Amino acid sequence: xxxxxxxxxxxxxxxxxxxxxxxxxxxxxxxxxxxxxxxxxxxxxxxxxxxxxxxxxxxxxxxxxxxxxxxxxxxxxxxxxxxxxxxxxxxxxxxxxxxxxxxxxxxxxxxxxxxxxxxx
Length: 120
Fold this sequence. Notes:
Blueprint: E1 3-8, H1 12-21, E2 27-33, H2 36-46, E3 50-54, H3 62-72, E4 78-82, H4 87-95, E5 100-103, H5 108-119
Parallel strand pairs: 1-2, 1-3, 3-4, 4-5
Helix pairs in contact: 2-3
């Protein structure tokens, strides 16, 4: 049975990119959410194995949405995705309990490695 991902990103292009990178793997995109509010609202319905969460989004940003998901759901595993990567931000991401951080543009190798680590 494939592991289910919830992709949270305000760009639909990222969802398509992740779907393409996951072709032929043991992972599938089970849901796509355009913002943090939608991810929080749909988590119980989707019950993903892993959430990929963009950081910069309108409304509730990825940091806040990830914190809410991990607070409300002990089993939530969140991998943060960003185009920015300074040291302070990395410390904050790991400080909230993120299981991994990926930087755009995504590569298949980095994505699969982060997913395996998050689920391991």
